[in-house]
Automatic annotation (TrEMBL):
Residues 250-481 form the JmjC domain. Residues 134-143, 152-175 have a biased composition (Acidic residues). Residues 131-197 are annotated as: Disordered. It comes from the Eukaryota. The lineage of its organism: Eukaryota, Fungi, Dikarya, Ascomycota, Saccharomycotina. It holds the Pfam family Cupin_8. Signal peptide: none annotated. This is JmjC domain-containing protein. Transmembrane segments: none annotated. PANTHER family: HYPOXIA-INDUCIBLE FACTOR 1 ALPHA INHIBITOR-RELATED, JMJC DOMAIN-CONTAINING PROTEIN 4. InterPro entries: Cupin_8, JmjC_dom. It comes from Kuraishia capsulata CBS 1993.
Length: 497
């Protein structure tokens, strides 16, 4: 593994958030992909920290290329696209908790084929989400979980081991390959050969150090998360380089998939003041909720099937969001850092570019994220709101008496929350959403009942390291670019096998 050191954060360099904030009456910008240049997009949205919808008459072709098709990721073709028809590809699955998802509860493992079969059987209690750690070397545990799922869909246990897997083939483990030039699938503007020359603060050039095959494989699966990893060798189906986002360093590409349950009745929305979540859990009308939270990366979100309804709030509204963690610092990039205390026991202090101040490598930064740390202590990440997501969707409650009760309770329990300015966003297949780091969002998913699996909703997203600099120099240190040069070498090795 590389031993590159991350520059430490200096508290004297605290920044105030100066990006876009929602004003009363604002609506989300819609950008025509055919009418905007990379420079305009970077200036108006990326470095203004302003969300927008991306669409065009040609769909997402101007963004992801002529060969990209949403059809490849629909339920009837997904297993073939991902070479998972044999049922051997396993993924981590989140179980529904309090009527929704996005909790810190431990996950189980199932085959991707088994997930689709569960959806066919109308099981809306499971959700394919981000994948943490290496799943490929835990086949025995996977088998146990699959059997347990078949026996009792409500009682899962996951005894997964978080330690690094041991390789049986020591000869293969000791193989190295050396420095790289660059990687490209559709022509990235990032020149990794010159990456260290753009900065005054010189660090060791991690892209030029030898790399083990184990590290290379880990980098590939960390970037294109399972079950998408195989597509690194087929960028015609899913490209790594996304037009308009050339200034940013890619961090992760994920597949999201769930099933919409029946509409929740108004009786489930009776607030109980004796409970921390008011007894509302994560239940919302007309769909399934992600919970209200923010990410530490810039997000490009692409629905494949179903509809996504976003309610988003600027990072500057964090005091009205009632986060699980205690906010330590809001950076100009929108990244929010938390105090490592009893409310965030595994939190690692965060820099303005989303990296951890005391992590040495890309892998540490990726695997010590707030979301995965929360899984270690079975609680919601500090970046999640304690406000029930229903309160972000009061406009969707049809019963006027229930709506009034919820409004009154919200103003008592979470004063100021309903006064926070938000954007409401309806996202459908063929659209994409750019959401900068730190923007709080609640996502309600509703399924496509015309799909081969009625009620399924599927999405792909790209996460990018949030820029803490300017359009001329997106990152103030070379950490993410230098380290991604190493990942680029691993991708190139995988593609030339």
């Amino acid at each position: 593994m590389t031993t590159q050191k991350r520059l430490k954060s200096h508290k004297s360099d605290q920044q105030a958030y100066l990006g876009y904030c929602v004003s009363p009456g604002d609506v989300i910008d819609t950008v025509d992909l055919a009418q905007i240049s990379q420079r305009e997009f970077a200036s108006n949205y990326i470095f203004s920290r302003k969300p927008c919808i991306l669409r065009s008459s040609a769909g997402l072709v101007p963004l992801l290329g002529q060969t990209f098709s949403l059809d490849n990721f629909k339920s009837g073709t997904l297993l073939k696209t991902l070479d998972c028809e044999d049922g051997k590809q396993t993924v981590q699955i989140e179980l529904k908790s309090d009527g929704g998802f996005g909790s810190g509860k431990k996950r189980i493992k199932m085959s991707l084929k088994g997930v689709l079969e569960a959806f066919k059987n109308n099981d809306s209690s499971i959700y394919l989400t981000t994948q943490y750690g290496n799943e490929e070397d835990e086949e025995d545990e996977d088998d146990k979980n699959d059997k347990k799922y078949e026996q009792d869909q409500e009682q899962y246990e996951d005894d997964d081991d978080d330690d690094e897997p041991e390789h049986e083939n020591e000869q293969e483990e000791d193989q190295f390959f050396g420095p790289d030039d660059n990687v490209s699938d559709s022509g990235s503007s990032i020149d990794f050969n010159e990456v260290e020359d753009d900065y005054d603060d010189r660090l060791s050039v991690s892209g030029q150090e030898p790399m083990t095959l184990q590290e290379a494989e880990s980098r590939c699966s960390d970037l294109f998360q399972p079950p998408l990893t195989c597509l690194l060798t087929n960028p015609d189906i899913l490209p790594l380089n996304v037009k308009l986002f050339e200034a940013l360093v890619p961090q992760q590409v994920n597949l999201w998939m769930g099933l919409t349950a029946e509409e929740t009745s108004s009786s489930a929305f009776q607030a109980d003041l004796t409970k921390p979540d008011l007894g509302l859990g994560k239940r919302v009308p007309f769909g399934t909720s992600s919970g209200l939270h923010h990410d530490h990366s810039d997000n490009l979100y692409i629905p494949v099937t179903g509809c996504k309804r976003f309610t988003v709030y600027s990072p500057s509204e964090y005091k009205q969001m009632y986060t699980v963690g205690r906010v330590n610092q809001l950076y100009n990039s929108g990244v929010i850092d938390y105090h490592p205390d009893e409310r965030a026991p595994n939190w690692r202090t965060t820099n303005a570019d989303g990296s951890m101040t005391d992590c040495n490598t890309y892998e540490e930064n990726l695997h010590e994220s707030g979301a995965e740390s929360a899984l270690k202590c079975d609680q919601d990440p500090p970046s999640f709101s304690r406000v029930p997501p229903l309160l972000a969707n009061i406009d969707q409650v049809s019963d006027p008496e229930v709506k009034k009760q919820l409004t009154d309770v919200a103003n008592v329990r979470f004063p100021g929350f309903l006064d926070a300015n938000s954007l409401k966003i309806e996202l459908n297949p063929g659209d994409a959403l750019y959401l900068p780091a730190g923007w709080f969002h609640e996502v309600t998913s509703t399924g496509d009942f015309q799909d081969e699996i009625p009620g399924i909703h599927t999405a792909i997203n790209y996460w990018f390291a949030p820029p803490d600099g300017t359009a001329e120099k997106p990152y103030t240190t070379p950490f993410w670019r230098n380290d991604f040069a190493r990942t680029a070498r691993a991708i190139d090795e995988r593609r030339t096998k």
